[in-house]
Design brief:
4Fe-4S; globular; Amidophosphoribosyltransferase; PurF_N; 2 domains; glycosyltransferase; iron; disordered N terminus; binds iron/sulfur cluster; 6-stranded antiparallel sheet; 18 helices
Length: 488
């Protein structure tokens, strides 16, 4: 393996991972510097690699793509000087291990295409569920792909469009695409943002001085001092120039199905989603969980960091004291880029350590955001028992994850998901804990603001990884043998 190519998932943390974060700015001096800061704030959405494309009237388009963290690459003055101009977009990526192999530099976005009316670059968050079929068709018609990424289909579809200008070519291309997409794109003069008709992935609009920006999350607006203007609507395209923001609706309207897992885990707790603080939603999930699954215990401890707000809510509702029973090493990062077998075997202990003095002799409630394969949950339970806990109770801030995501989240195959093959009681026995309870889907809907819980006749969110009800049929996966719930 090349030293330049990082191994995918050097440490298996047994979480679902968002695959991308996107950011774009127009109308500011040295836009690429703002994009680098925005991507730094979105680093939780992808840590394997990042890229920036900028445009300058004299120097045209420039790009840089690098493996690793934004802070380790896009802070170098010598690199940032190569990305001049008032318009730039960027992307951070998480590799899709298992399905397509480790990240190659050619898979790192933004992707760029030169068209007869000028160049354009795009950065995509989500997943195109008919990408295999599109790629086959495009290759048969002469397209030459440079990467293994589904997102590259958009550039080739744009190249084949007969429309007069780039925004119209994008509309044309995206009408052929199925699945989830939030896209930021740029031409020589325009910043463009689009969300798919279901609005599965987030995208927000911000204002900075005389300029504008687009971001996966509001936390990235805060870092550059931009003001949050609004979310891009599902099915909306915005075309931003020096003259302002033009909004068009290129797609047939559909009921929105925003990813409910963004509220549970993917988005940063200091972001705002659907007008609500993500932190507050997560705290409310903990409140619902304490109501649905009470247990007599001495301490409520989060599995850091993602379980923290839900643990606070659980503690507040139950009256059981909150404590930092597990401490996370904040400097773990990619320290061991090619870890030895000995280091790998230390596994979760490299990242998490138990606060022994606090835990000894206590009945402990551990609050985590999800259980995927159960490997980490089991190791954490062992660490807590080794530290002398009297009882271990898991409370999980999402319903059992029993189905894979095909909309831009890296998920193991269905057979590897613990909840796909075991009931809640079987999972409790498998993890060898005193009790295990997940929040119900109704409880989760209440926590995100649906008073009556989930209304199956009118779902407001995508919850397919819990319910198996996919709002867009994953046609490529069905072709590969994936069986939908109704077909089982
Ligand atoms: S399947 Fe799950 S993770 Fe994927 S978009 Fe739907 S709710 Fe989000």
């Amino acid at each position: 393996m090349s030293k330049l190519m990082p191994p995918a998932h050097p440490f298996d943390d047994d979480k679902l991972h968002e695959e991308c974060g996107i950011f774009g700015v127009v109308g500011v001096t040295d836009a690429a510097n703002f994009v680098a800061l925005g991507l730094h704030a979105l680093q939780h959405r992808g840590q394997e690699a990042g890229g920036i494309v900028s445009h300058d009237a004299e120097q045209g388009f420039n790009s840089a793509r690098r493996f690793g963290y934004v802070r380790d690459n896009f802070t170098s003055q010598s690199l940032m000087k190569t990305l001049p101009g008032p318009l730039a977009i960027g992307h951070v990526r998480y590799s899709t291990a298992g399905s397509k192999g480790p990240t190659q530099i050619r898979d790192v976005q933004p992707f760029f295409g030169e068209f007869s009316m000028g160049g354009a670059a795009i950065a995509h968050n989500g997943n195109i569920t008919n990408a295999d079929a599109l790629r086959r068709e495009l290759i048969e018609r002469g397209s030459i792909f440079q990467s293994s990424s589904d997102s590259e289909c958009i550039i080739h579809l744009m190249a084949r469009s007969l429309q007069r200008n780039i925004p119209e070519r994008m509309e044309d291309a995206l009408r052929r695409v199925e699945g989830a997409f939030s896209v930021v794109a740029m031409t020589r003069t325009k910043l463009i943002g689009v969300r798919d008709p279901l609005g599965v992935r987030p995208l927000v609009l911000g204002k900075i001085g005389d300029g504008w920006c687009l971001s996966s999350e509001t936390c990235a607006l805060d870092i550059i001092g931009a003001e949050f203007v609004r979310e891009i609507d599902p099915g909306e395209m915005v075309v931003i120039t020096a003259d302002g923001v033009e909004s068009v609706r290129p797609f047939r309207p559909r009921k929105p199905r925003f990813c409910i897992f963004e509220h549970v885990y993917f988005s940063r707790p200091d972001s705002i989603l659907g007008g609500r603080s993500v932190y507050e939603t997560r705290r409310q999930i903990g409140v619902e969980l304490a109501r649905e699954a009470p247990v007599d215990a001495d301490l409520v401890c989060p599995v850091p960091d993602s379980g923290t707000p839900a643990a606070i809510g659980f503690s507040q509702e139950s009256g059981i004291p909150y404590a930092m029973g597990i401490i996370r090493n904040q400097y773990m990062g990619r320290t061991f880029i090619e870890p030895t077998e000995q280091i790998r075997n230390m596994g979760v202990r490299l990242k998490l350590n138990v606060n022994r003095a606090l835990i000894k002799g206590k009945r402990v409630i551990l609050v985590d955001d999800s259980v995927v394969r159960g490997t980490t949950s089991r190791k954490i339970k062992e660490m807590i028992l080794d530290a002398g806990a009297a009882e271990v109770h898991f409370r999980i801030a999402s319903p059992p994850t029993a189905w894979p995501c095909f909309y831009g989240v890296d998920t193991p195959q269905r057979e590897k998901l613990l909840a796909a093959t075991m009931s809640e009681d079987e999972m409790r026995d498998h993890l060898q804990v005193d009790s295990l309870r997940f929040i119900s889907l109704d409880g989760l809907y209440r926590a995100v603001g649906e008073d009556k819980g989930r209304n199956p006749s009118q779902p407001q969110y995508c919850d397919a990884c819990f319910s198996g009800e996919y709002p867009v049929e994953p046609s490529d996966m069905i072709e590969k043998g994936f069986r939908l719930k109704a077909a089982e």
